[in-house]
Amino acid sequence: MTDRQKAELLGRRGELLAELFLQDLGAEFVARPTADLGYDFFVGFNNREGGVNIAAVEVKTTERPVQQRFPLSRQLFRRLAYSNIPVLLLVANVKENRLFYALPGTFSAVAESGANTVSVPVVAVDHTTKEELRHLLITQTVPSAAGAESLA
């Protein structure tokens, strides 16, 4: 198996973990774009007023242990944090079958030593944090770009 094939398989495994997690969260729909729109999924959650709250989802896959912060390219962070819809970042540790999440529009990223990398805080998914995330997505209290700090 080539390195590229392995990376593709790991990426797909991470996306499958994320898709199952989103369905388990109670998403009304989990849609994979048919064209490259810059996100892995779009999800919709029925809200209490009878509408549907939509969010974009970006999945990053790793085999390494995930710390309290996860590195992203500055370009990816800007796309996630400054979109006009809420974006959910899911980090899948495929070796441990664990998920972590971040809501990039709600915090400031910290610049890494490399000019093109930032790190974002991530939260390990457990029963409590899963319910908190479900509540945020259903009530749509996930702010978008307004909460993110500029990375000039």
**Helix/strand-derived class?**
alpha+beta
H/I helix tally: 3
CATH topology-level fold name = Trna Endonuclease, Chain: A, domain 1
Q: Spell out the helices and strands N to C.
A: HEEEEHEEEEEH
Supply the CATH architecture.
Answer: 3-Layer(aba) Sandwich
The overall pLDDT, averaged over residues, is 87
The helical percent reads 25-40%
Q: Count the strands?
A: 9
CA radius of gyration: 15 Å
How would you describe this protein?
It is a single chain. This protein has 152 residues and is α+β, with helices and mostly antiparallel strands. It has one domain: 3-Layer(aba) Sandwich (Trna Endonuclease, Chain: A, domain 1), CATH 3.40.1350. 28% of the residues lie in helices and 30% in strands. The strands form 2 sheets. It has a 6-stranded mixed sheet. The longest helix is centred in the N-terminal third of the chain and has 22 residues. The chain is globular. The C terminus is likely disordered.
Q: What descriptors fit this protein?
A:
28% helix, Trna Endonuclease, Chain: A, domain 1
Set out the fold topology.
Layout: H1 3-24, E1 29-31, E2 41-46, E3 52-62, E4 69-73, H2 74-81, E5 87-93, E6 98-102, E7 110-111, E8 117-121, E9 123-124, H3 127-139
Parallel strand pairs: 3-5
Antiparallel strand pairs: 1-2, 2-3, 4-8, 5-6, 6-9, 7-8
